[in-house]
């Protein structure tokens, strides 16, 4: 496998998943607080959320706030944390997932807390999935284990550390600074990458290679139906799903049954042309009025009817022209 992958994969070091160095009953559960209660980002004004956060900070004013964030875009992955006027940010390997970048930000924030001997602190993150993973006792992610182990180490030294969720992009200053710093980080951090991230990168590379080859298959009749390779989910009943699949691949009982009986290809009863899926759906002029009735047009390609989301009138049209049960 390594021989066919590009050079970007060759120097990647995978993060090992070591066994726990302490028994499970000594595992510190990391709980988190939510200062916003039942107020959600989607249903609340920014000013309300900021007010709630300010009230929370007054209550925990003896705890130094540490804002963490991770970011991933097409050409950049980064992580950062902001505390007490200091910003620390790192650029990460392009294979790193946004989840891993969030964890990395928390890990180095804990390192900062240790080096600067901060006795009481609250780590803020806008990643609820990260907080749930830290609270879980069943996760196998080595980065989560790394954070938990170092958190346990800090507790043993007398540090008091809390975790809290904050909504993103609501103008909470510390969170906004961490977010911008993660997106603009330039100092590259060399670290092993978790297996799940490498596997995802390999899958993405394979998919891109597949897509590039598929793009060359412009004469393939299936390319018109599905030019972009992806998983199509259907919510149709069994019968409609079978009909749709047969129409997409162009092989139906009506158009291809003749092969089983060594007969001549069937022809259209209206115009005498060879009967094909394309003829039934787009070409036969005898049913143009019905196309106009169901599709508001008589000029379109097959992807309009059979694409990822099939036309909602497709099956009604097939039943009206009397071929639904022959597909």
From TrEMBL:
One of its GO terms (biological process) is DNA replication, removal of RNA primer. Belongs to the RNase H family. InterPro entries: RNase_H, RNaseH-like_sf, RNaseH_domain, RNaseH_sf. This is RNase H type-1 domain-containing protein. One of its GO terms (molecular function) is nucleic acid binding. Pfam families: RNase_H. The gene is RTase_561. Gene3D superfamilies: Ribonuclease H-like superfamily/Ribonuclease H (3.30.420.10). Residues 60-187 form the RNase H type-1 domain.
